[in-house]
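Progress narrative, work stream C.
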Amino acid sequence: MKRNTTQRAIVYETVSRMHSHPSAETVYDEIKKKYPGIGRATVYRQLRDLAKEGRVRCVALSVGADRFDFTLRPHSHIVCRCCGRVEDVSFTDAPALAFPPDDPVSGFSVEGCDMIYRGLCPACREQADQ
């Protein structure tokens, strides 16, 4: 059994309530409101471990901090290139995240796929139009 199960439960419960794809820092800020003694490193470590265990999804962004997602079913994300807001893709004609078979040339065993769209959220698009 992993150590720090109380902290892990607190972090897991917090991420499960946050549907905004929070960064580790955002999760930490939320937790410290109720548990001011919890350390930043503890929250970051617990998030990393929860992602390794497959209990939360780490959405690795090329720009900015990684985000965390409680939704584990295969789905894509869209990121605002201006403010960094992350949302689940909701348009119905988005390509399905079908995993191809293992690659016989490279020898890789396919374990997952992340598709991230980039664009402008409604608020940033409105500001750009002004």
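Work stream C, second folded protein:
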Amino acid sequence: MLHRHIALCLSLVCLALTLLSGCGDGESRLPDYDYRIDIEHFEDAIMQNSDKYLLLANKQHPLGATYVPEALCTLDASLTLYGKEIQLEESAALAVEALVRELWACGYTDIVVTSGYRSYGYQQSLFYTYIEKEKSNYPDWSDAEAEAYVLTYSARPGTSEHQTGLCVDLISTNYVSLDESFAQNPAYAWLCANAHYFGFILRYPQGKQAIVGYGYEPWHYRFVGVEAATSMHESGLTLEEYLDKI
């Protein structure tokens, strides 16, 4: 009888702990969204809720030359433009795979990833290439004038969000240029309504340049995890504004 009593008590304790944790059989942590793909493989990634996914990189918060994200993973070539090699932090990589595969399942089969992690050195090369390009376009400009213009659309090395390994640029295989015309793609409306279910936010929305430091980029999405992404989606806050409030 004593053994049976102990076993019963242990069972009740286990049941209570299960109920308190909100992890009973059949219960999911996922948001109320009808995923078309099998989301099980991606669930742990998209539901990440660590402060490291709120890492802020902007003109006022540089990462510096030595920052490299932990556990970089290479995306499956089928997910990238022309099959090029693109890396992301491991949870962000799984989350964007889920996002893109869901887009395809919903009929937006032209959407792929064109950019992810960029090292400090790569961003440095890119930034100064842009400056030379603008000086070529506007021969009368000084180096300072060309740099000031480039800073409206590209980050000085060490301040690029791409260095975090947590963001991607999406593109259409039907129009392989990164510009505001991406907002005319039918997939953009879907992303605005649903990207947060995969832990992503539109990082540089329209009308927020004074806050985020860059103009409207309908193609640039940042992984923060479902909880934070949903809060920002519902409130309309940028990452900077969200971090100011928590």
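Confidence is low (pLDDT under 50) at residues 1-26. No further action is required on this item.
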